[in-house]
Task: inverse folding
């Protein structure tokens, strides 16, 4: 009974609690980092108590690698966010007379404006993520994320820095150009961070009909399948809306998500942090080694 309750309530309680805490902190002049850390600790605890898969509980020699990615992803995201805001500020100011500010009523709380920010940001992120699977130059970067041997909350940060730079730019650029207010941008970043933990968590999460709104763990586990036809689906970072629009939504309810995840054709993909950073430059040799196994 408790396990069932956790499966149903875990997602809304952790995400909703983090957003509420972040919004209160912003109103008080603070930041959202404490809410992000609190959500990470909650997901970590849930993975210990109610794991989706017992074999994903143990380290696969990946914890230190993923922690290194946490540091590089945080640094890259912050740097790119500052750069995008600085470079696009003149264009945003030029668009302001066209009424972009009216999209973000000043009388509305930031949380009420967050859905629009998610829809606008993901309209571009969907395509950069999809191209990361379908166009080899970008797949060379994105393959790092799919090299994970298991799914647990730290996988949310297993990204090549250049992949993170592209994804962050894709999400922020339309919001900056549309004049999205800073508090909403901060909640957008918090939502994305917390959602990433939940999306990759090793906790049995059940959303039911909400799987037609959110790109959560039930759907995202298919995205990490070794079968490329299953993996090239469910591209939404937070929302699944654009997958529904463009026909890449995948949820076979008659069977469970795959137990084996990773890169079927890249069996020799490096599992060290520095090896993953260098992987785009060594792509041919990595691909050849995988074919010759």
Result:
């Amino acid at each position: 009974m408790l396990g069932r309750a956790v499966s149903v309530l875990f997602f809304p309680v952790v995400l909703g609690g983090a957003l509420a805490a972040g919004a209160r902190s912003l109103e008080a002049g603070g930041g959202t980092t404490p809410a992000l850390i609190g959500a990470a600790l909650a997901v970590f605890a849930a993975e210990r108590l109610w794991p989706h898969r017992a074999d994903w509980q143990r380290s696969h020699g990946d914890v230190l690698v993923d922690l290194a990615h946490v540091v590089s992803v945080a640094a890259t995201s912050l740097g790119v966010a500052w750069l995008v805001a600085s470079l696009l500020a003149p264009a945003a100011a030029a668009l302001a007379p066209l009424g972009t500010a009216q999209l973000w009523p000043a009388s509305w709380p930031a949380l009420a404006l967050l859905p629009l920010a998610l829809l606008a940001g993901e309209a571009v992120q969907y395509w950069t993520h999809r191209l990361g699977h379908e166009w080899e130059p970008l797949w060379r970067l994105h393959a790092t994320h799919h090299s994970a041997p298991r799914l647990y909350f730290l996988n949310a940060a297993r990204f090549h820095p250049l992949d993170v730079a592209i994804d962050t730019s894709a999400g922020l650029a339309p919001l900056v150009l549309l004049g999205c207010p800073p508090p909403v941008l901060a909640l957008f970043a918090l939502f994305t961070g917390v959602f990433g933990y939940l999306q990759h968590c090793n906790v049995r999460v059940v959303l039911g009909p909400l799987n037609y709104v959110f790109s959560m763990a039930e759907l995202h586990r298919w995205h990490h399948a070794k079968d490329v036809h299953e993996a090239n689906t469910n591209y939404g970072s937070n929302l699944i809306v654009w997958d529904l629009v463009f026909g890449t939504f995948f949820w076979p309810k008659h069977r469970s998500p795959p137990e084996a995840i990773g890169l079927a054709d890249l069996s020799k993909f490096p599992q060290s942090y520095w090896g993953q950073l260098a992987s785009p430059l060594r792509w041919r040799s990595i691909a050849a080694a995988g074919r010759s196994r």
Summary: The mean pLDDT is 93. Residues 63-201+210-291 form one domain. The chain is about 60% helix and 0% strand.
